[in-house]
User: What shape does this take?
Amino acid sequence: MNSVLEEYKTFVSTYAESDYLQKCRELFAKEHGQLEEDEKSEFLDYLAQRGGDAAFIAFCEEEQVLMSLEQAESYSSTFCGKNGWGNPLFEVWQVRIGNYFIKLPEHIDAKNIGDYYLFAIKMAIKHGWICALQKLLLKNKEEGFADFELSEFEELIRNQPDRRIGRIVRNYLLNGTIGEDWQEAVNGYKYYVPDVYVDYFATTGKEICKENLKSYKKSKLLGSKTTLEELNDFVNQYNWDDGVEIPYFIMHHKNCDLALRKKLFELGAGDCIDEDTFKDPDKDPWKRFILELKEMIEKEEK
Assistant: This one.
């Protein structure tokens, strides 16, 4: 291994003082130009795996690294799994993610910056990084890196339980506003309680149900005129690999009876559930489906 590359790796893995970033810059400046291109890539891979976002950007700046869109997306995806960045409770990490997303395009070919911004915004939406999302949208508003339509984010928004994410994206695209600045709350050490959807089946589950019914060519199955026989026929040929969303709404249909609910319980493997094991069934649609169905059956049998 190149002695300079070895020195870099040793330094970033052991140095933990408050002036760490400054020491990084001094080291990179001192040894500037001592690495081959493949060694630069190896070191960036190393930093990405360690979650060394600040050192990563400092190294890119000192060595004037220019990377491809594919490299930038790969490094960013790796960073997203490091240092607790996937934990929505630690908003301070979201500020760092935002800073990283803002700085990295300086090291991407100009023609690819718009594509990278679109990628980064989608990442922020998917993971619920509200601070990073606001920072990205504000920077894009100022610089005009990327043009996009709401339709490009609709599916991600539907699958994101934090409702503020959807509001932020829609407000930005419809009227150009960003809304409340969550980074200010973070800087003031005011951690937030996510504004989440409480009922999975009333939100995400309903959308999944609608889409799955289209694949069965039964979009009107849950209409008020659907008979018990039609519901029963559908259940008999339903593929349970498609989830419990449709069965959940069938069990609540006004024409569903006790016998059909018992069939849903049996086909849905209701006997496999251990109620004492699952203290929070709302986090698992199947457990929520089975426990609610069991309660309905028990009430009807009384």
Q: What stands out?
A: Residues 68 and 275 are 51 Å apart (CA to CA).
